Amino acid sequence: MRQCLVLLCLLPTLSDGLLGFTQSAAAKGVLMCNDVPAKNVKVKLYDEDTGPDLDDLMDSGKTDAEGRFSLQGHVDEFTPIDPKINIYHDCDDMLPCQRRISVYVPKKYITKGATADKVYDAGVIQLAGKWAGETRDCIN
Q: Structural domain tally of the chain?
C-alpha cells in the first residue's frame, strides 16, 4: 500500500519528465538584398536538435514587401531548446537551389510555456555577400 502511495505522488513528476516541457521562442527582422527589401523570402523557426532526431519546425513564413518577417512557435523538449532562424534566398545567386543561412536565437529569448514573452530582434540582415556556415538547400 505504501509503495502505491509513493508511486501516486511521483506520477505527475515522472510524466512531466517523459513528455518534456513546453518552450517557446519568437523572432523578427528585416531582410535586404543589395539594400533593397528582400520580399517573399522563406524563413523558418526551428528548434535545432542533434543526433538522429530531426530539427523541430516551430513556425514558417515569408517576408512581406518591406522584407520584414515575424515568427513564433513552441515545442515540447526535455532539455532547453536551441532556436534558430533559417533563411532561404536567391540574393546575388544564379546557381540551382537556394542559399541557406541560419541565425541562432540567444538563450535569453526562450520562454517556458506555449507563448513567447520576449521577441528576438535579428535586426536588418543583408543577404548579399557570403555568410559563414552558409549552405545550399534544394528541398526547404
A: 1
Give the Cα separation of 85 and 47 in Å (integer): 9
Q: Shortest CA distance to 77 belongs to which of 102, 52, 113, 41? A: 113
Q: Which residue has the cell 535545432?
A: 48
Give how far Cα 4 sits from Cα of 8, 10, 17, 23, Å. Answer: 6, 10, 20, 32
* CATH number, residue 93: 2.60.40.3330
What confidence score (pLDDT) does residue 16 get?
A: 43
- How buried is 45 (Cβ within 10 angstroms: 0-12 exposed, 13-18 middle, 19+ buried)? buried
pLDDT in tens, 31-74: 999 999 999 999 999 999 887 778 999 999 999 999 999 999 99
Residue 60: which domain range?
20-137
- Which residue is it, cell 501516486? 8
Report the DSSP pairing between strands 36-37 and 68-77.
unpaired
Pairwise CA distance, residues 52 & 50, whole Å: 7
At residue 90's C-alpha, the angle toward residues 32 and 70, to 5°, is: 50
